[in-house]
Design brief:
single chain, alpha+beta, 5-stranded mixed sheet, 33 helices, 34 strands
């Protein structure tokens, strides 16, 4: 459908008569130059000067079609010459230096690619270059970015490459053209369009637009094929020598030699064919497909989307991807599926660097009309308009295609092409498509950009960036145009991903309808639209040029807004439609960098901000949250401050509160001044006082405002409810804190329960930390919590760190920045105790969470601080707190396995055991008559039950060192501490925990041999690991004389260790543990182990027999 709205879109009209009959070939030149073909000449007219004749240049024959190319500034003509026997001959010729003064200068002629220009020819002489053709041409087209020429001859389209060469003799540069690619279509081509590697061909009933790509898989296969051919040649030469040797050997034949190789070749070929099927473009693995909903217009397509599969039964579904019309195929698909294209890379090209068989045609759009059921034919006016990235690399996820391979159709050193807009029309309906290009051609996105229904049959169409001009049977029609999606989002901020309507399915605007009669051609220049009409009255057929001057983007925008405002009350939908169309006009002009006509005109970006503000005003007046979100996004583009938005809207506006709240909560909103902040708060006081607390807590742009006014609003809200809302209480505390009344903050916070305070603080976690000069520290609010609400403080930060919002290292740094601590010696202060208690609380919940402890870089500094604090506690830093808190000892004792279970053998080391394993201590008799081992065990149990304050700190440190949390540096620091303080409590056990495993064994063997058995039970998981302990124990015992009292001690320990292994180790493992030279000495233990193994075997056999008997009985 079309919305008819008259918008003044032409500034003035000039009329000029043609001295010669024109209209046989018309095209635009540079700027506003119009080239009109006449009788063996081309007239040059300047439309800016009213279409007056500025000059002309001769042509060889009668011009049938004219095309101007910006790259090279040359004119291509399709010329006709009558033949002797009827019909005509057709030639394609290129004219160089046509815009120079060629009066009384001969025209130099040559054949492209075959004849070089004369070495004496000057650069200002008119030069004609004839393009060699094999068959008569029907249509010509030029690529404006590369200068390549496409010539349609029947079903064949030949692309000639634009080249700049250097003359061998004069060293002068000249322009030449070489045959590059020949394309054979499946229909007779009537029109052709070319834009770099995109080519479109049209017949009366069929249109095919495709991309010429380089298939990397075919390129790899081609190189492999070359290698295989070279290997095949070598294998043939080898087979010949084998055949000769076989013929000389009796009883052997050539067939017997080659049969095995033939079977091997068949197997390899079969496997290669399966691989080639999986790697082909037609192969689809349904197991890897993902459902992708229809992409809305203006939203960037994700770069990791897979190709689309269009299932016929789902054509009408709303989430089926780009839905095609009958007879239409929307790609990308292989051209073999719809209309085959045969590509041939011509060998005459000097730029050929790639083999011909690596090129393929990927269909983007294919349409075929049915002559019987679809009378709306023929197709015509095919336009390909490339879209380039105006600011490459600025936006992430851009769809630019890196040219990794040297494509002969792509220019070098030009802006990256991100897509193209394609227009195609029938006599009554025009179709606009937008293609977004990606590195993989089969991931290209093709969406419909608009449908245009004309009021009368169309003859010719010209496209501006924002408008479409159609020359119909009744006159000139002008429609609004939907730009490419990349252009739509190009002006948006990087962090703003919004959908910019209107969608292509919405109606377009017919903004102009001007009657013209007998118009033959329609041509668009930079700032004019030229129509050439024929005057059929009288005997002489004359022509008239109508030059319509186009308005600037700013003027067109203002006119559209003016017309839209006139419909604002009567038809709000029309007002919105024109606002959106005007917004797209500015967006397109900014992307294309269209020059302004007058220097005094407003800046386009300022107008775009005004347009965004108007759209924001409209959507704010709507009733749904989705429309309010759109209003917020448009206001963000407009760069209006929240107070400026309030001035534009009424207090009764439905979306006022939602829009202002969203703007205030956006992180990119700049900090408001005092006047701006007070204006915003006054609006909230009148419209939504209950939102003030939320704004104060969440907005980072409200810094300087009237504290008394906010206090009054919040207190009034608190008086309305029996139980205070946590957000109101927290906001009230924050305002008191800003006023400098920190003593009132704790009183306000006391009105909430602990769990309510924790929840509301976690919801507003941005209030907990502040960053100044690159350093993060605790906020003043958190400092009040740390001093008056320690439980809440701990619970909040433990939750934040556990969720991953904050790292433990960052918390320690922020804490130390506010509360400097002393982490060594008896001078540790209260702040050190706070930090230690917090870290213990955290690890009490997360020490066994691998997701937390697996990221050492997030907690390593906290562990270092903990180790230092625990070492300080061993020298009396924190003292005994049991007098202040009767439950203190029980709480510390509960943390003895906080980080990891302590090894049991630590209970046999000082200070938990007085047995230092000295021989004289073992020989002395105790006074009560008990054995030393029993006495040590009883004392250890009593020590465990009555741990002193220092022992409690030691136990927790032992648990920490028993875990994997401390780093190597932390353990090295502990070793340095025990070396410097050998009399410190538990120094021996700390040394053991920080040594390497081999060093641990040596230290315990020398100092605490009575703990060896328990050490082995704690540290070894399999019996074979005991081998080192047994070997070192036997060696050390053997080194002692039998008269030494320690000899008997180590003998008893060895017997205890071997007695443990006799029971726990299999016999073969036990024999591996015992050194071979000691078998005779330890024969008794070997017999015991053998007997135990036999007993285990017998028990297993009996159980197996019993199970078998039971199984037989149950059958």
């Amino acid at each position: 459908m079309v919305r008819v709205i008259s918008v003044h879109h032409f500034t003035r009209q000039d009329v000029a008569g043609l001295e010669h009959s024109g209209g046989r070939g018309v095209t635009r030149g540079k700027g506003d130059i119009l080239l009109v073909g006449g009788e063996h000449s081309v007239d040059i007219r300047n439309l800016k000067s009213g279409g007056i004749l500025q000059g002309s240049f001769p042509t060889v024959d009668l011009v049938h079609q004219l095309v101007y190319c910006e790259t090279g500034a040359f004119v291509v003509t399709l010329e006709t010459k009558p033949a002797r026997h009827g019909g005509d001959h057709r030639y394609v010729r290129v004219y160089l230096h046509w815009d120079q003064d060629n009066t009384n200068q001969p025209m130099r002629a040559r054949i492209a690619g075959r004849v070089t220009p004369s070495s004496q020819s000057g650069v200002t002489n008119l030069e004609m270059v004839e393009i060699p053709l094999r068959t008569p041409a029907e249509f010509i087209a030029c690529c404006q970015s590369t200068g390549n020429i496409a010539v349609a001859c029947g079903i064949t389209v030949t692309v000639f490459k634009f080249c700049q060469k250097t003359h061998d003799i004069s060293k002068m540069k000249f322009i030449d053209f070489e045959e590059l690619i020949e394309l054979d279509m499946s229909f007779i081509v009537k029109e052709v369009a070319l834009s770099e590697d995109l080519i479109g061909c049209v017949s009366e009933s069929e249109a095919h637009i495709f991309q010429i790509t380089i298939n990397s898989q075919l390129l790899k296969g081609n190189s492999k094929e070359k290698d295989s051919k070279s290997q095949e040649k070598r294998s043939k030469s080898r087979s010949k020598s084998k055949t000769r040797s076989a013929s000389r050997s009796p009883g052997r034949s050539v067939d017997s030699l080659s049969s095995a190789s033939r079977l091997r070749d068949r197997r390899l070929k079969k496997e290669e064919s399966l691989v080639s099927v999986r790697d082909s473009d037609d192969y689809v693995d349904l197991g890897e497909l993902m459902w992708v909903p229809t992409l809305s217009y203006g939203r960037k397509r994700p770069t990791d989307d897979q190709r689309f599969l269009l299932f016929p039964s789902l054509v009408g579904a709303a989430q089926c991807g780009p839905v095609a019309e009958p007879g239409e195929i929307i790609g990308p698909v292989s051209s073999a599926r719809c209309s085959s294209v045969r590509l041939k890379l011509l060998s005459g090209s000097s730029t050929q660097k790639l083999p011909a068989n690596v090129f393929e045609a990927v269909t983007l759009i294919h349409r075929r009309a049915d002559h019987n059921n679809d009378p709306d034919i023929p197709f015509s006016n095919l336009k390909l308009m490339a879209v380039y990235d105006s600011e490459p690399g600025k936006k992430e996820g851009t769809a630019s295609t890196p040219r990794r391979l040297s494509h002969p159709l792509l220019p070098s050193g030009s802006p990256q092409k991100v897509g193209a807009s394609i227009f195609l029309t029938t006599p009554h309906v025009g179709q606009l498509y937008h293609v977004t290009l990606f590195e993989d051609p089969y991931k290209n996105s093709v969406v419909r950009g608009g449908v245009f229904s004309y009021t009368a049959p169309v003859y010719s169409v010209e496209l501006e960036p924002s408008l479409l001009h159609a020359l119909t049977l009744t006159g000139l029609e002008t429609y609004t145009l939907r730009p490419h999606p990349h252009i739509v989002v190009s002006h948006l901020p990087e962090d703003l991903n919004m959908i910019v309507p209107p969608h292509w399915e919405e109606t377009v605007c017919l903004v102009g309808l001007r009657p013209f009669l007998n118009v033959e051609t329609l041509t668009l220049t930079d700032s004019c639209l030229a129509l050439i009409a024929a005057n059929n009255e009288g005997g002489d057929k004359s022509h008239t040029v109508y030059s319509l001057h186009l308005p600037s983007a700013a003027s067109l925008y203002k006119e559209m807004v003016r017309v839209g405002r006139s419909h604002r009350s009567a038809s709000p939908s029309t007002y919105l439609h024109l606002l959106l169309e005007a917004h797209l006009v500015l967006t397109t002009a900014l992307h294309h960098e269209i020059p302004q006509v007058q220097e005094a005109e407003e800046d386009l970006y300022s107008l775009l901000q005004d347009s965004s503000a108007l759209l924001g005003d409209y959507y704010a007046q709507c009733d749904t949250e989705a429309e309010w979100k759109q209003a917020t996004q448009y206001y963000q583009v407009s760069s209006l401050s929240p107070d400026a938005v309030i001035e534009r809207l009424d207090l009764q506006c439905p979306g006022l509160v939602a829009v202002i709240s969203a703007l205030l909560l956006h992180p990119n909103t700049p900090v408001l001044t005092s006047a701006q902040a007070n204006c915003v708060l006054e609006m909230f006081e009148k419209a939504a006082p209950d939102k003030v607390s939320t704004i104060i807590l969440k907005s980072s742009c409200l810094v300087d405002y009237k504290k008394d006014k906010v206090l009054g609003i919040i207190k009034q809200e608190l008086s309305k409810t029996a139980e205070p809302r946590p957000t109101d209480v927290l906001a009230l505390a924050l305002v008191f804190l800003d006023r400098g009344s920190s003593e009132q903050v704790s009183t306000v916070l006391a009105s909430l329960r602990a769990y309510q305070l924790v929840v509301v603080l976690l919801q507003h976690s941005r209030l907990l930390l502040i960053t100044e000069d690159g350093a993060t520290r605790l906020s003043p609010l958190v400092q009040v919590l740390a001093e008056h609400k320690k439980e809440v403080f701990t619970e909040v930060f433990v939750s934040l760190i556990g969720e991953g919002t904050l790292s433990l290292n960052a918390f320690v740094d922020a804490f130390v920045a506010v509360y400097p601590i002393v982490s060594c010696g008896p001078e540790c202060n209260t702040h050190s105790l706070w930090l230690r208690d917090f870290l213990e609380k955290f690890f009490l919940e997360y020490a066994h969470n691998s997701e937390i402890t697996g990221q050492r870089d997030r907690y390593d500094r906290a562990i270092t601080v903990l180790v230092s604090l625990y070492l300080a506690s061993l020298v009396g830093a924190f003292g005994d707190k049991s007098k202040e808190d009767p439950n203190w000892s029980d709480q510390r004792a509960a943390l003895k396995e906080l980080y990891a279970p302590r090894p049991t053998f630590l209970g046999l080391l000082p200070p938990f055991s007085n047995d230092h394993s000295f021989p004289e201590a073992q020989t002395s008799e105790p006074e009560d008559g008990g054995s030393p081992e029993e006495k040590a065990g009883v004392e250890a149990e009593e020590e465990e039950r009555n741990l002193s304050a220092s022992l409690l700190h030691l136990v927790v440190l032992q648990s920490l060192l028993s875990s994997d949390l401390p780093s190597v540096e932390d353990r090295t620091n502990v070793l340095k501490f025990v070396t410097a303080n050998p009399t410190a409590l538990g120094a021996q056990s700390l040394r053991v925990l920080c040594l390497e495993s081999s060093q641990q064994l040596d230290y315990i063997l020398q100092e605490f041999p009575h703990a060896l058995l328990q050490y082995g039970k704690d540290m070894y998981e399999s019996p074979l690991e005991w081998e080192e302990l047994v070997l070192k124990l036997i060696t050390h015992k053997s080194s002692l004389p039998e008269s030494d009292p320690a000899y008997q001690v180590y003998s008893d320990i060895l017997n205890d260790v071997l007695g443990e292994l006799v029971v726990s180790a299999p016999f073969d493992v036990f024999m591996r543990i015992i050194p071979g030279s000691r078998h005779e000495e330890l024969r008794g233990h070997i017999r015991q182990c053998h007997s135990a193994a036999l007993a285990v075997h017998l028990r297993t056999s009996l159980m197996t027999y019993a199970h078998n008997v039971l199984a037989q009985m149950t059958k």
